[in-house]
């Protein structure tokens, strides 16, 4: 929209509301003040709870009428494996391929489908079977590779979807598609949609938190772009808050040296008054966002240090997540924080872990990636379960696509084995409330190349995620530039077969 026209429309709204007994600004702030009564009490009690006395609470309310129906889960933890794990080497067991090692995948199978530029011109598509061993595990008998012993121990709590497919062959567009429903940046991410639609259960932490990690060897050159957790055209108060992997978890939250909490409180009060004057003048909703974010930052000064103090965890819990759990910024550390965030009411936690981009280092780096992520992922599910949180939490594990069943490069040189990007069939797993346990859905063909049964498109995955949260994906929309947008664009059906 033309910003001049937008300004005129905003001013007209401001003038209309300005004629009422109260201004638009106080109406907007009323939501923030709604929970103030919970803080009623003397200053001593307020100090004890580490909350500012009688201040507007920044918790985000959800939209009227949401959820659309009773939800199966309250929160989501998404463990996105950036770079794309090789499904054939992990969960999609194809023992018959050993007999076809080194033979060409038939054109009737690969159909000259689009690949990345790294193998688009490669003449040979020689079959490279899984180079790890596989065993069946649990009562469900799920096949899991030998590099994932901890994941193997939770298969009876997991649904494997082995028929995922997408339309993208490059990392950033593929991740953007999974998280926003569109290949191009600019749309709201899943966490932003959930914050907008369902609001926040906690007043002292954001509704949407993001953490990133990568392999120690830095073998994967993928970048964590900010638009992966952006709010797009939604107000910026719905965007994800990134916790850093070193130093202070959140920048600029701590007070400068010599500035007391009481002085900061007075500064924020005065700043809120000035911002309210500007809001009455211009009607910009981002000003209300700014007021709320200042208040949230003030509360996070107390809540974040307590959240990140993992030394308060029992030794057996720390041991469950593995030896890397005490290293800030590791995947194990982030998984433990994800559980702590979930039990404190954070709606959506997004973990990114890079290092799965095995173009020429499959025979070395793949095992390292499994070792770094296997134990923490399984520990998160076990930890949630033993605390009674798994019943209303959805845990998602998967990448943006899979890896090719053929070898990238020379199949006769094991040290150079690699697999290229593969969007046509791959595997993810889900665990938690509303999901069948010990279940496998969908199948790839005999080469693990294409979906052979029960295909699941990215928009179907997103529709199912929203359904578990009590949201009809077709009804959670936002009007922007004359069109009603939604996470699933104009597609998507709930995958009923995976629901408990």
How are the secondary structure elements laid out?
Elements: H1 3-18, H2 24-33, H3 43-48, E1 75-82, H4 107-110, E2 134-137, E3 142-145, H5 149-152, E4 158-165, H6 171-180, H7 190-198, E5 208-214, E6 241-243, H8 261-282, H9 285-307, H10 315-321, H11 331-343, E7 348-354, H12 362-386, E8 393-398, E9 402-403, E10 421-422, E11 426-432, E12 439-441, E13 443-444, E14 451-453, E15 456-457, H13 458-468, E16 478-480, E17 483-485
Helix pairs in contact: 8-9, 11-12
Q: Given the structure, what is the number of helices?
A: 13
CATH topology (fold) name of the largest domain: Alkaline Phosphatase, subunit A
Report the biggest beta sheet as strand number plus sense, adding barrel if it closes. 9 strands, mixed
Shape: globular
Look at the structure and give the mean pLDDT: 88
Low-pLDDT runs: 12-58
Succession of helices and strands:
HHHEHEEHEHHEEHHHHEHEEEEEEEEHEE
Instruction: Count the domains.
Output: 2
How many strands? Answer: 17
Helix content: 25-40%
What is the name of the CATH architecture of the largest domain? Answer: 3-Layer(aba) Sandwich
**CATH C-level label of the largest domain:** Alpha Beta
Q: How much strand content do the residues show?
A: 5-15%
Question: What do you see in this structure?
Answer:
This protein has 500 residues and is of the alpha/beta class. The protein has two domains: 1-35 and 250-307, no CATH class; 75-244 and 325-498, 3-Layer(aba) Sandwich (Alkaline Phosphatase, subunit A). Helix content is 32%, strand content 15%. It has helices at 3-18, 24-33, 43-48, 107-110, 149-152, 171-180, 190-198, 261-282, 285-307, 315-321, 331-343, 362-386, 458-468, and strands at residues 75-82, 134-137, 142-145, 158-165, 208-214, 241-243, 348-354, 393-398, 402-403, 421-422, 426-432, 439-441, 443-444, 451-453, 456-457, 478-480, 483-485. The strands form five sheets. Strands 1, 4, 5, 6, 7, 8, 11, 12 and 15 form a nine-stranded mixed β-sheet that branches. α8 runs antiparallel to α9 (285-307) and α11 (331-343) runs parallel beside α12 (362-386). It is globular and about 75 Å long. The relative contact order is 0.20.
């Amino acid at each position: 929209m033309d910003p001049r026209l937008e300004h005129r429309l905003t001013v007209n709204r401001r003038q209309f509301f300005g004629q009422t007994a109260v201004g638009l600004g106080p109406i907007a702030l009323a939501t923030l003040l709604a929970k103030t009564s919970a803080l009623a009490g003397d200053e001593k009690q307020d100090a004890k709870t580490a909350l500012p006395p009688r201040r507007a609470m920044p918790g985000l309310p959800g939209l009227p009428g949401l959820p659309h129906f009773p939800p199966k889960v309250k929160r989501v933890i998404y463990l996105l494996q950036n770079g794309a794990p090789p499904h054939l080497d992990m969960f999609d067991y194809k023992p018959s391929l050993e007999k076809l090692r080194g033979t060409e995948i038939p054109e009737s199978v690969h159909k000259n489908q689009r690949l990345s530029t790294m193998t688009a011109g490669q003449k040979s598509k020689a079959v490279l079977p899984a180079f790890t061993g596989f065993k069946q595990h649990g009562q469900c008998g799920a096949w899991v590779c030998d590099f994932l012993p901890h994941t193997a121990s939770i298969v009876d709590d997991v649904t494997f979807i082995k028929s995922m497919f997408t339309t993208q062959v490059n990392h950033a567009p593929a991740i953007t598609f999974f998280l926003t429903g569109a290949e191009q940046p600019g749309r709201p991410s899943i966490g932003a949609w959930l914050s907008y639609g369902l609001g926040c259960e906690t007043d002292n932490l954001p509704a949407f938190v993001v953490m990133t990690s990568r392999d120690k060897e830095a073998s994967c050159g993928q970048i964590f772009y900010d638009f992966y957790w952006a709010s797009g055209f939604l107000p910026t108060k719905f965007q994800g808050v990134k916790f850093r992997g070193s130093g202070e978890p959140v920048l600029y939250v701590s007070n400068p040296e010599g500035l007391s909490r009481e002085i900061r409180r007075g500064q924020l009060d005065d700043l809120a008054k000035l911002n309210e004057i500007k809001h009455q003048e211009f009607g910009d909703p981002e000003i209300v966002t700014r007021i709320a974010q200042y208040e949230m930052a003030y509360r996070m000064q107390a809540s974040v240090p307590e959240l990140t103090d993992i030394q308060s965890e029992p030794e057996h819990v720390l041991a469950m997540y593995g030896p890397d759990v005490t290293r800030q910024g590791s995947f194990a550390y982030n998984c433990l924080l994800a559980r702590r965030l979930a039990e404190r009411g954070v709606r959506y936690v997004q973990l990114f872990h890079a290092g799965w981009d095995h173009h020429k280092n499959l025979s070395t780096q793949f095992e390292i990636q499994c070792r770094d992520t296997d134990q923490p992922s399984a520990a998160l599910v076990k930890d949630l379960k033993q605390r009674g949180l798994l019943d209303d939490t959805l845990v998602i594990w998967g990448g943006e696509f899979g890896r090719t069943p053929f070898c990238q490069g020379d199949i006769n040189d094991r040290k150079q084995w690699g697999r290229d990007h593969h969007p046509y069939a791959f595997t993810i797993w889900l665990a938690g409330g509303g999901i069948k346990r010990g279940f496998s859905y969908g199948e790839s063909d005999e080469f693990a190349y294409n979906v052979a049964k029960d295909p699941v498109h990215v928009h179907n995955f997103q529709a199912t995620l929203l359904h578990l949260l009590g949201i009809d994906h077709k009804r959670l929309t936002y009007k922007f530039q004359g069109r009603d947008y939604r996470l699933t664009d104009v597609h998507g059906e709930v995958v009923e077969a995976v629901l408990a």
